[in-house]
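ESCALATION

Customer reports they have been waiting on this structure for their group meeting. Please prioritize. Original submission:
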Amino acid sequence: MTIHHPTDAPEAAAMAASVPGKVRLGVVGVGKMGLSHLSIARALDHVEVVGVCDSTDYVLDVLGKYTGMHTFGSVSRMLDEAQPDAVLIATPTGSHAELVGAVIDRGVHVFCEKPLTLRAEESRELARRADDLGLVAQVGYHNRFIATFGEVKRLLDAGAVGRPSHILAEAYGPVVLKQKGSTWRSRRATGGGCLYDYAAHPIDLVNWYAGTPQGVRGSVLHSIFSTETDDEVYSTFVYDDGLTAHISVNWSDDSYRKMSTSVTVSGSRGRIYADRQEIRVYLRDGATPPAGYHPGWNVHYTTELTPPVSFYLRGEEYTAQLESFIDAVGAHEHHARQNSFDSAAATDAILDAIVRDSERSSDGTPAPRAGSDRHRRTSRRWGQKR
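Update from on-call: job pushed to the front of the queue and completed.
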């Protein structure tokens, strides 16, 4: 077994080990999420992991010694020597803009953990550059690959509950429960706190269902234990067709065993509630039920709705999102099938708007619009695909 360390020159060995027909993947960042992605990628038949990059030499030494994977101390060296077709980035959010930009500039497809960046302007620029080069560029909002949340999208597109009037998106869990030394996740410049690290997930779901709001109101970013950033997030979204949405997120809530996300949609013909485990749908008399539904209460479980994946780790959604990315790359497509940089940039615009709204002075300054005209929908017709 050949073991490559960051100081070696592996180009010949890496190229010789290439397997025809497989997508050559490089992984940048092997912390908690990076190791999960790496494990899934190595289990996929149509993926060849050709390089792993991290800033910690000890981690690279261990991976090289026990797996034989080629390891690198810099992204540029990995791109030069391993020559991946695609790169997966799972580093602290504050580093995304620079790393993603470097990969795009080499004409390499990229999967980046969420959120894309800490500034919507940077996210839009990365989306533009990826589009110009025809690259598959995807962001890791894995909730869109959870079957129950996908079923909400399908039912809304079918007009099952009529015209929605309100969406409630929630996420609660025991992530930060005491004052302690900060990590990259709890620093505004590197992780963005609860807003960017956890609230981004339900916000992205609302954006998927309803489009970018016209504006945000009453945003609150409140610290409970953290000294540098927020631990709970509350905000109301307004749309120009009368729809409203409320976001309620708290990562310092120990009444939950683990972080949990849910969505409730109230409509003119019924109501939908969904979380990771199940979807409950109430349809009023007179509604036209979709196949598999009837007037009154309906309950479907994620086990009924979730298609099998080739490898299970943490949840089917993590494999499903990576397979979607790899399949698009392998098919020589030019855009992500789900969670594109464009959609991630629209979510980042909402995050930016929440920050600005929470910082508004008390002089009655108007709340900011959530996105540019490129992303904002000025009208919506529920029941029709967009």
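Sent to customer with the following note: The CA atoms of residues 116 and 195 lie 13 Å apart.
Escalation resolved.
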